[in-house]
Design goal:
Layout: E1 6-10, E2 24-28, E3 48-51, E4 54-58, E5 63-67, E6 69-73, E7 80-82, E8 85-89, E9 92-96, E10 99-101, E11 124-127, E12 130-134, E13 148-149, E14 165-166, H1 178-185, H2 193-203, H3 210-213, E15 221-222, E16 233-234, H4 246-260, H5 264-268, H6 270-274, H7 278-282, H8 286-296, H9 312-317, H10 319-323, H11 329-337
Parallel strand pairs: 6-15, 8-14, 12-13
Antiparallel strand pairs: 1-2, 2-9, 3-6, 4-5, 7-10, 8-9, 11-12, 15-16
């Protein structure tokens, strides 16, 4: 495989001025993956702002990795988050850092979802020192937040795509306005420590690398920064290249199927038990496969010791079709029909 050409540039040297938070921009010659499809986890409480997930670059392993979307407590009253974005310039893709400010700046026209539709932010606004959430695009029904409204007019289900970069071949062809450029040049505070830690933990999580998850990270979004396990951790779904963990999903589905038919097995196998001798002669190979499958699925070994020889054929018959049922086809449709809660 051709080795990726990569160089690290100081943020101040890149085309668009970046936040003065001592971060770096990266310039590489491989386009970032498409944005995964996922649902937004519930908000942890009032005063939190949604920061969408994005693909970052790890120069140590020369690979993209997914930084899960998460809820971050607003660093100050009136704070709005401008997401970072990848842009094509000078023959390579460069990363423009996101930042907090009084206004939403340019983020490449990338549709990150959940209010970040490519320009501006329609997920809410500040009102007399408190943030008002648009419940039509944010998952804010789990906690008692009184300052919630519902505006579905901002939802546009047409022209929805998952392109994660601006410019170049296949990129989004929009440019920053003069006002958005002014917002980018303004002074911005350093990122909250929790937000920086969230990005660092994502970088050191091998499962979030694109080469491992193939564009479908197991942790696509979290309810709080740095929380990559437990409840309210949302996996991606519907990536066209396949899931990041297709085998565990298939195994889990098989195991569910095996548990769903515990009583059916004794009913299906009285006849094979009556003919134990032909089994070893006609099917000498299924027995090792059965043994391997029993090692994978823990609920199976105990009910099967009495009829271990006659069981291979029924067990082998069920998992194979289920593996090809693949849960992937659902993701693309859900993302298209409900952009307000998935991206």
């Amino acid at each position: 495989m051709k080795k990726t050409l990569m160089s690290i540039l100081l943020a101040a040297s890149f085309a668009a001025p970046l936040a003065a938070n001592a971060q770096f921009a990266v310039s590489i010659n491989v386009a970032p993956p498409a944005l995964p499809v996922y649902v937004q986890p519930p908000i942890p409480g009032d005063g939190y702002m949604w920061t969408p997930g994005y693909w970052a670059w790890d120069p140590d392993v020369s690979d993209y990795y997914w930084v899960p979307g998460t809820w971050v407590q607003a660093p100050f009253v009136g704070a709005l988050w401008t997401p970072g974005y990848w842009g094509w310039a000078g023959g390579s893709y460069g990363w423009h850092n996101g930042y907090w400010g009084d206004h939403i700046g340019f983020y490449g026209g990338v549709n990150y979802g959940f209010g970040y539709i490519g320009v501006g932010y329609v997920g809410g606004h500040w009102d007399h020192g408190a943030f008002a959430y648009n419940g039509a695009v944010n998952n804010v029904t789990n906690v008692h937040i009184t300052n919630v409204y519902r505006d579905t007019s901002v939802i546009h289900e047409t022209n929805v795509n998952r392109v994660s970069f601006n410019g170049g071949s296949g990129g989004i062809q929009v440019h920053a306005s003069a006002q958005e450029e002014a917002f980018a040049r303004a002074s911005h505070p350093a990122l909250p420590a929790a937000q920086v830690q969230h990005q660092q933990e994502a970088m050191h999580n091998p499962e979030l690398r694109n080469s491992v998850n193939h564009g479908n990270p197991a942790v696509a979004a979290t309810s709080a920064p740095g929380k990559f396990s437990g409840p309210n951790v949302v996996p991606a779904k519907g990536a066209p290249a396949g899931g990041g963990h297709p085998e565990p999903q298939a195994q889990q589905h098989q195991e569910t199927q095996a548990q769903a038919h515990p009583q059916a097995q004794p009913q299906q196998h009285p006849q094979p038990q009556a003919h134990p001798q032909p089994q070893p002669q006609v099917h000498p190979q299924p027995q090792p496969q059965q043994h391997q499958e029993q090692q994978q699925f823990h609920p199976q070994p105990q009910p099967q010791p009495q009829a271990q020889q006659p069981h291979p054929q029924p067990q082998e018959a069920h998992p194979a079709p289920q593996q090809h049922a693949a849960p992937q086809p659902h993701g693309g449709q859900e993302h298209h029909e409900d952009d307000k809660h998935e991206h």
